[in-house]
Design a protein that fits this description.
binds copper (II) ion, Nuclear Transport Factor 2, Chain: A, about 10% helix, single chain, 8 helices, globular
């Protein structure tokens, strides 16, 4: 979820992209005594020194520290950029898939960097591609109205502009806040992407929205904002172009500060420990991870964070491809409050803020299990002399117990296997929420994606101290004893009263996964599976019993599909050119877990948020088409022509190189228990081999 990012000290998300070299931290712990007391004395083991583990170069390797220095020099020597230019969102310009597929170790390959260039003096943004081998700028494309996501450079500018606008200071003082000097010294400022705002759609500039936290005495920064006060800052013009200053609901002292004196302690329960925290079944060689039969590459960039490549399964002597690339393509948070002060809250967290840029360190024994290994990628950082830095502990890898893998008992005979999963992921703090993005691999050839949602809900002050709905509900059913349905109205409408005078806003979280499947080869197909009732008629045939109806997809435009629990709907990605002993094609079935429906008004074609209108999409593979919300969703008036909705055209998708996109959502109606700190939520989706193996691949694999 996106929400407020209040700042006195702006968290440098760092930049990402590691290389063939990185730091791996391995925290192995001792175990407790016989009484079960856990001794948390940890042993810090560095597996290699930063920069010491060079692997065989590969075209998908992130930019190295040396390459980033080269990039710095090429940009400087070009003479095209002023000193105040913001070089943002640098990453490897990924080679074309066909080139990567042809690559053989030891041969040379292209190395290109891509980045966005923001020139505030000229009021222009560009997308640049730089050939690092040829040491030249290959292309510099004027982005026109499109704006890259905001970063710390923008926030620093916005802070200065806010501090020098006398109206801001007066507005804060008028509300009883103490502002002896600069506002940012004494009031948390919340810097937000501009969001959805019809009044700003015609403004062609680089805008940022600023809110003001109401509690000056808090340690944390997430008090409800000062209601009625909001500034729109134009970073090109260097001034506040719109200041909303209305009375609003009065601020109050409420127990919101989770870092204050009432800071919660860790739960008293003893932690559940892995049996052997120092032992592992996985290995990491450069950017290649191997665990049991799984093998994949990984990378990390500012926008998407962790990306997996060339995920394959070692099946005997065969190395079988499953995915070419897997990533989170966009994160969207959409709020329900229609009021002027809140209706703009539709935030593209990835395209506007960067999952990798906002990634945070994970500590074994705290955010991740004690047996986790953490990886510190080298990342581009144009604010440093070397154009790079080390982002500490941003990636984690660990194994976890997952219950029984299989279990059968017959009298005294038992066949049993214990499941161990491999988890690789990262955390990103996007305002008031921290998300954990996990790819989970299982021994039986299945894998899943999980997202953890944690943090604080967005709250706002309202005039009423009590819950309007609650008063209505207290009147009970209808007078005749039948059901009576109430609809929330009044100030409670867009949320839940979580504390007197405090409303927690209802919202939706959306995550889109981009999954470039290559099941046993590049050309794949997708079918939808629906269980139908006896007697149902499909294509003139009547189902004699409960039966499966399989719909083979032909064109991308037809695959705008919703989940359906009534028919146990699923989707299978398969290779139509290969058949097993029964004639079945090897495939992977997408099995939805919890999900939700888009509750907001239907977006039009090309709308950046359109990917939430359906759960499953399939498009032809196209180089560079990576983001469900388009490459540049960060501005109210962004002309998005490359969103997923535009990709789903009449192109054929049968027996082609295809990409599956899955939108995973949650409708979050706050509860009082979500305030001031919510318990974690978790969403997931599973991908299960379906005809990929002739039989259970784990049978015979378990300890006897
Ligand atoms: Cu939420």
């Amino acid at each position: 979820m996106r929400c407020m990012k209040f700042d006195l000290r702006c968290v440098p998300g760092g930049s990402m992209i590691f290389v063939q070299r990185y730091c791996i931290r391995d925290l192995a712990a001792g175990r407790g005594n016989a009484a079960g007391t856990f001794i948390a004395a940890a042993l810090l083991v560095w597996l290699g020194v930063c920069g010491a583990r060079a692997a065989t170069p590969h075209p998908l390797d992130p930019l190295t520290a040396e390459e980033l220095i080269t990039l710095r020099d090429i940009l400087a020597e070009s003479g095209q950029f002023s000193t105040n230019t913001n070089f943002a969102w640098t990453q490897l310009a990924e080679p074309q898939k066909s080139a990567v597929m042809r690559f053989t170790p030891g041969t040379s390959f292209a190395r290109e960097a891509s980045l966005d260039v923001i020139d505030y003096a000229k009021g222009k943004t560009f997308h640049a591609v730089v050939d690092l081998n040829a040491r030249r700028i290959v292309s510099l494309v004027d982005l026109g109205d499109r704006q890259p996501g905001i970063n710390d450079h923008d926030i620093g500018m916005a802070r200065s502009i806010i501090n020098t606008d006398p109206r801001i200071r007066q507005a804060l003082i008028k509300r009883g806040l103490s502002v002896p000097g600069r506002p940012s010294d004494v009031v948390y400022l919340g810097y937000m992407p501009i969001g959805r705002d019809p009044s700003l759609e015609q403004t062609r500039s680089r805008l940022i929205r600023v809110l003001f936290a109401s509690d000056q005495n808090a340690v944390g920064d997430s008090s409800p904002p000062v209601d009625g006060l909001m500034a729109i800052v134009d970073l090109y013009q260097g001034r506040v172009i719109k200041l909303s200053d209305t009375p609003g609901a009065p601020s109050r002292n409420i127990p919101h500060d989770v870092f204050g004196p009432s800071r919660p302690d860790e739960p008293a329960a003893r932690p559940v420990l892995p049996a052997n925290p120092e032992s592992r079944n996985f290995s990491i060689d450069g950017a290649v991870v191997e665990w049991r039969n799984w093998r994949f590459r990984y990378s990390f960039n500012l926008r998407e964070g962790l990306v997996l490549y060339q995920v394959g399964y070692n099946d005997g002597a065969r190395s079988r491809p499953v995915l070419y690339r897997a990533s989170v393509s966009e994160v969207l948070t959409n709020y329900a409050d229609p009021g002027e002060f809140w209706s703009w809250m539709r935030i593209f967290d990835e395209g506007s803020l960067g999952l990798g840029y906002q990634a945070v360190a994970a500590q074994p024994g705290r955010e991740v299990p004690l047996n986790a290994l953490t990886i510190s990628p080298i990342v581009p950082d144009p604010t440093t002399p070397r154009f790079s830095g080390i982002a500490r502990d941003r990636i984690y890898v660990y194994e976890r117990d997952d219950g029984n893998l299989f279990y059968h008992q017959d009298g005294a005979r038992v066949v049993h296997g214990r499941a161990t999963d491999l988890v690789i992921g990262f955390f990103a703090t996007l305002g008031n929420y921290t998300y954990g993005f996990n790819w989970v691999f299982k021994a039986d050839g299945s894998f899943s994606f999980e997202v953890e949602l944690a943090g604080q809900i967005v709250t706002k002050f309202v005039r009423s101290p009590t819950c309007n709905d609650c008063a209505a509900l207290a009147s009970g059913p209808s007078a005749d004893g039948k059901n009576h349905t109430y609809i929330a109205d009044g100030s409670d409408g867009p949320g839940t009263m979580v504390y007197p005078n405090v409303l927690g806003l209802t919202h939706q979280h959306w995550f889109n996964l981009r999954l470039d499947f290559d099941v046993d080869g590049t050309e794949n197909a997708v079918m939808e599976n629906n269980v139908i009732r006896p007697g149902s008629r499909v294509n003139g045939k009547q189902a004699p019993s409960i039966a499966m109806a399989h719909t083979v997809f032909g064109m991308a435009s037809e695959v705008r599909r919703h989940m359906n629990e009534a028919s146990a709907r699923s989707w299978t990605i398969y290779n139509p050119r290969v058949h097993d002993q029964t004639g079945r094609a090897p495939g992977y079935t997408l099995v939805p877990m919890e999900n939700t429906e888009d509750m907001f008004s239907s977006p039009g074609e090309g709308d950046a948020s359109g990917f939430t209108s359906h759960h499953v999409w399939v498009t032809p593979y196209r180089d560079g088409a990576l983001y469900a919300g388009g490459a540049y969703p960060n501005q109210a008036g962004a002309k998005v022509t490359d969103a997923l909705t535009s990709m789903a055209d009449d192109s054929p998708i049968y027996d082609r190189d295809i990409v599956v996109w899955y939108s995973l959502g949650s409708t979050h109606v706050p509860r009082p228990e979500d305030f001031p700190l919510m318990s974690n939520m978790k969403l997931s989706v599973a991908f299960r081999p379906d005809g990929f193996f002739p039989t259970n691949p784990t049978f015979g694999d378990a300890p006897k």
